[in-house]
Amino acid sequence: MSIASAIVLFIVIWFMTFLTVLPIRIQTQGEAGKVVPGTHSGSPEHHHIKRKMLIVTGLAAVLWGIVFAIIVTGTVTVRDIDMFDRMGPATEEGS
Fold first, then answer.
1. CA distance 83 to 15
2. What is the pLDDT along the chain (95 residues), one digit of tens a residue?
3. For the whole model, what pTM was predicted?
4. What are the φ and ψ backbone dihedral angles of 28, each rounded to 5 degrees?
5. Which of 20, 24, 27, 32 lies at a CB distance of 3.0 to 4.6 Å from 46, suitable for a disulfide?
6. Does residue 43 contact residue 36 with C-beta atoms inside 8 Å?
7. Contact 91/79 with Cβ under 8 angstroms?
8. Beta strand spans in the chain (E)
């Protein structure tokens, strides 16, 4: 795996994790009782974005390490997920 592929993999895992964690423990304006005129009552009052970004970075690093190890060691290859056998038979060189 090249360094560019590793960076792209980390960024994809980070954003997927971030978008999953983002709605957790949000306090809305309606829940806080302080709705700003012109906004929806479901708008966040306290979102704790810095803390979530730090947590997501650590979690993404762990997930990235696991996925990176699986890819580099060849534990799971593209042929393993070829359910319809579209890649054809494996050769000695390319397997």
1. 28
2. 899 999 999 999 999 999 999 988 888 888 888 888 888 888 888 788 999 999 999 999 999 999 999 999 988 888 888 888 888 777 766 55
3. 0.74
4. -80, 165
5. 27
6. yes
7. no
8. 27-28, 44-46
